[in-house]
Amino acid sequence: MEWLTEVWFSTPQWFQVTAYSLIKIVAIMLPLILAVAYYTFAERKIIGYMQIRIGPNRVGPRGWLQPIADVVKLMFKEALIPAKANRFLFLLAPVLTLTPALAAWAVIPFSDHLVLADIDASLLYVLALTSMGVYGVIIAGWASNSKYAFLGAMRSAAQIVAYEIAMGFALVGVLMAAGSLNFGDIINGQQGGIHQWYVWPLFPLFLVYFISGVAETNRAPFDVAEGESEIVAGFHVEYSGMNFAVFFLAEYANMILISTLTAVMFLGGWHPVFEFAPFTWIPPLAWLLGKIVFVAFFFLWFRATFPRYRYDQIMRLGWKVFIPVTLVWIAVIGICTFHTPIGHWFH
Amino acid sequence: MTFTQLAFYFFATVLIFAAAMVVSIRNPVKAALFLVLAFFSAACVWITLEAEFLAIVLVLVYVGAVMVLFLFVVMMLDINLARMREGFGEYLPIGGLIAVLMVLEIAIVLTSGGFGEEQFPRPEGHPAGFSDTKELGRLIYTAYVYPFELAAVILLVAIVAAIALTLRKRPDTKYLDPARQVTVKKADRLRVVKMPAEKRADRTTEGEA
């Protein structure tokens, strides 16, 4: 052990920083990818039970090895490239979808000190990165040179731009309540039990944010970009094997990301529900993970419950309902904070 | 060379390469994608300047919204490269003249000494707790509040104008008001008709035969 520490301290500074950062990145990525794998399993099981089926139960005890089997199958399948496709962009698209979905995790705080990059404008950073995910979809649709893929890309582009505005405005409300763009400060602004969480004063924004998050990740009931029954699978109809799997990895990583952001910004992050004895014994990380799982469950519940929206109704909901709601509520927060005695409710 | 310098030269090289590709590549979709790369590299260069807020907003607004709509339009175009090349020789003299003039103008401005290194103090690094978002907000809402609000009003006018230009009443559309759709009751649409069961004469006679 002695010589190991000696070797470590004899290495140059930049190497130490790089190695330390890499270890931290792996410590976030590995659990995340495992979580994605078992989120797909949870989805199939939960939706199965909701529809009075059993779900996958053949591979491993009670089906627990099903996601591993799926990954192995997808890895060994041939990755086809359509003859008339734009080869480079076709292969680039899945990477462009996955990169923002993973890079956004850099600024997520897991507890008071557990954060990879504690940057000042972390909320903006996440917003900027999630807005780049749409390029993967658009490029996939265009590079496939197929009309179904192209239709999916068109739908997705319009939808994501519409809901991103509502999402951004909802986050402006959070920013006004917390007075900071840093996730750590936002979470610490909600300390002191369930009545301090931003979900209560910002309830309309919470609803808008979460529903926009479902729309941003192209999940049911807003999954018109895939629309199996209309455009066979939308933007990723031409993809197979591992390329296809990367799209799925990104979609589920994004769902977990939206769940995490909802937990962080509206449900008090790592703070316990009540600030007294039995609740404070549970470690902060467990509280955060519990809240993430709670929110993530809603994604699956929605899929099992709601039929797909018609496309014009999606657009109407985004532009004519959500954006006005968020604008009005931002004005309410501003006026109440500065001109009424109840301003402290919003902080 | 420090890490910051290395990062600057890397992003600057990518930026210049991407910008050159935007104007030289044939395929308009690829040109738009190179423009995205150029914006992104510019944002990275700004981050090395410690302007995180502006860098992230550049990505958020230009990469996340403007270029998506731009791609949306460009992807729908049916571009015939042969027809685009037709007038090349015809426009070459005028285009060349404008290009030479622009290069001259840029050269005059840059060599006038107004942009020399000695004109600007060396930017100093900020302490660890510095928040450029807060600083920018303070400046915008105090020193530059009128220009800022003027810009906002101009943008609002542009939004209203854009909507007014594209707004048209279409009599042939089968639009339904969703508020009316969800409040509709069974009684509004469905009429239950009760009829007494009838005995068919031919069936009974067949059965007896």
> Can you tell me the CATH architecture of the largest domain in chain B?
Up-down Bundle
Tell me the number of strands of chain A.
Answer: 0
- Using only CA atoms, what is the Rg of chain B? 32 Å
Give helix and strand order of chain A, one letter per element, not per position: HHHHHHHHHHHHH
How much strand content do the residues of chain B show?
under 5%
Largest interface: A-B, 29 and 23 residues
Question: Taking all residues together, what is the mean pLDDT of chain A?
Answer: 84
Oligomer: heterodimer
In the CATH scheme, what's the topology name of the largest domain in chain B? Four Helix Bundle (Hemerythrin (Met), subunit A)
User: Whole-Å distance between the termini of chain A?
Assistant: 50 Å
Number of strands of chain B: 0
Structural class of chain A: mainly alpha
Average pLDDT of chain B: 83
* Low-pLDDT regions of chain B: none
The fraction of residues in strands of chain A falls at under 5%
- Specify the structural class of chain B: mainly alpha
Using only CA atoms, what is the Rg of chain A?
A: 22 Å
Tally of helical runs of chain A:
13
Distance between the termini of chain B: 109 Å
In words, what does this structure look like?
The complex is a heterodimer of chains A (347) and B (209). Chain A contains 13 helices and no strands. Chain A is an all-alpha fold. The N and C termini of chain A lie far apart (50 Å). The relative contact order of chain A is 0.12. By secondary structure, chain B is mainly α. Chain B has 3 domains: 1-84, Four Helix Bundle (Hemerythrin (Met), subunit A) (Up-down Bundle), CATH 1.20.120.1200; 87-119; 128-169. In chain B, 70% of the residues lie in helices and 0% in strands. Chain B has 10 helices and no strands. Chain B has helices at residues 3-24, 28-48, 52-76, 81-85, 88-111, 132-141, 145-166, 178-182, 186-189, 201-208. The model of chain B has no long low-confidence stretch (mean pLDDT 83). The chains are: A mainly alpha (347), B mainly alpha (209). At the A-B interface, helix 5 and helix 6 of A face helix 2 and helix 3 of B.
